[in-house]
Backbone:
């Protein structure tokens, strides 16, 4: 995938295959002497039993420049938390498993509830938010990276390339977003990016006209990747979405808070595969159906905040324009796959497009019915303003869980 194309909106950092992993790690180890690097791993307990996480830990065990690893553990009981601590014990770096369902963490959640600041629903967004709060409370890292725990093709070079742009003190970047081709088992994957986000952004530009925000999102080669790195001073003012619009929400926050020259995307892998969500056409509250609706709402909310006026007629026109754009792109994906010896099931792809088109209308109706909906978890700056002791109590609760259930 090596090239040197720049689109002019954000910087793209490519893998030109001219720098070895050893050289990257040597530089990162030098940077980390004065700019400590932390990694956040949001994990379900079920991922400890999956095919990916054990290999990820084997790779991370060989990383010399990480100062701290924070694992956010969801959907675990006490016995599973004890097992998780043993599971992650192979990591040689300083590491902490945050048991998000512990009595102490639930008590802190009730405390936030009394301030009207508690996250509204469990999930990856809440998990990441809690881990970021713990990292802020530790106050000992300059760079934070996040990636998922279900990456089947994981290699430690992914992490090195992800953190390098924000760890290098000579670079101006405050945030780096990873990108890669989604291929696996002889197929092109990444359905939501290919069949929803890309054609939706094309359709939005045609329907509502030029918007800098749309051009910004279109600059990212893989806007839904779960891999990004940031310099930690921007974390206290970061708004994390509580729904499945996390990745788009984080990009929107970077658009809100940072200059375009402070944001980059970086190529981290030649091939990437992870756990696949079901399309779930029969249940709009699950799978890619729920994800597509939340992503649409996140984009609509951001455009409305920048002054775009949406009406039912706009959403109907948007659906029709999206549908045509998605089918046009599908032809290109099919030909690309064919030339590279990969497969695309055109029937399943068109069924996905039909579902996503319906969910554009669904998301638009939810937006119109609830224009004041704000599914963002409060920033840590706001939590600190309401409860100045909370961050230190969060760190103490995590430490007490480690000690009691060791």
Residues:
């Amino acid at each position: 995938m090596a090239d040197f194309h720049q689109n002019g909106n954000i910087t793209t950092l490519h893998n030109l295959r001219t720098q070895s992993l050893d050289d990257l790690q040597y530089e990162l180890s030098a940077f980390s002497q004065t700019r400590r690097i932390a990694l956040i791993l949001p994990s379900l307990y079920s991922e400890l039993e999956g095919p990916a996480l054990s290999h990820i830990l084997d790779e991370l065990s060989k990383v010399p420049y990480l100062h701290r690893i924070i694992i956010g553990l969801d959907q675990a009981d006490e016995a599973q938390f004890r097992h998780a601590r043993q599971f992650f014990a192979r990591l040689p770096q300083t590491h902490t498993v945050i048991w998000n369902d512990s009595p102490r963490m639930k008590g802190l959640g009730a405390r936030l509830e009394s301030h009207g600041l508690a996250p509204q629903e469990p999930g990856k967004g809440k998990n990441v938010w809690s881990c970021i709060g713990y990292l802020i409370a530790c106050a000992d890292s300059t760079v934070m990276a996040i990636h998922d725990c279900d990456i089947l093709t994981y290699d430690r070079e992914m992490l090195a390339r992800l953190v390098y742009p924000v760890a290098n003190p000579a670079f101006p970047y405050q945030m780096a977003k990873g990108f890669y081709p989604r291929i696996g088992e002889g197929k092109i994957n990444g359905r939501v990016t290919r069949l929803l986000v890309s054609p939706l952004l094309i359709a939005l530009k045609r329907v509502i006209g030029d918007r800098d925000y749309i051009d910004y999102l279109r600059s990212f080669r893989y806007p839904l990747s779960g891999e990004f790195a940031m310099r930690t001073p921007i974390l206290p003012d970061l708004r994390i979405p509580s729904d499945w619009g996390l990745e788009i929400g984080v990009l929107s926050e970077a658009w809100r808070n940072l200059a375009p020259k402070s944001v980059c995307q970086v190529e981290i892998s030649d091939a990437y595969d992870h756990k696949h969500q079901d399309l779930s056409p029969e249940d709009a509250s699950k799978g890619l159906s729920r994800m597509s609706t939340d992503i649409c709402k996140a984009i609509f909310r951001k455009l409305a905040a920048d002054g775009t006026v949406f009406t039912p007629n706009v959403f109907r026109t948007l659906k029709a324009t999206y549908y045509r754009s998605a089918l046009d792109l599908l032809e290109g994906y099919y030909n690309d796959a064919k030339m590279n010896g990969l497969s695309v099931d055109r029937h399943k792809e068109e069924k996905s497009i039909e579902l996503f088109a319906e969910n554009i209308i669904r998301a638009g109706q939810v937006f119109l019915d609830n224009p004041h909906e704000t599914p963002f978890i409060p920033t840590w700056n706001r939590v600190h303003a309401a409860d100045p002791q909370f961050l230190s109590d969060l760190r103490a609760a995590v430490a007490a869980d480690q000690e009691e259930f060791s």
Q: What stands out?
A: The CA atoms of residues 172 and 262 lie 6 Å apart. The mean pLDDT is 94.
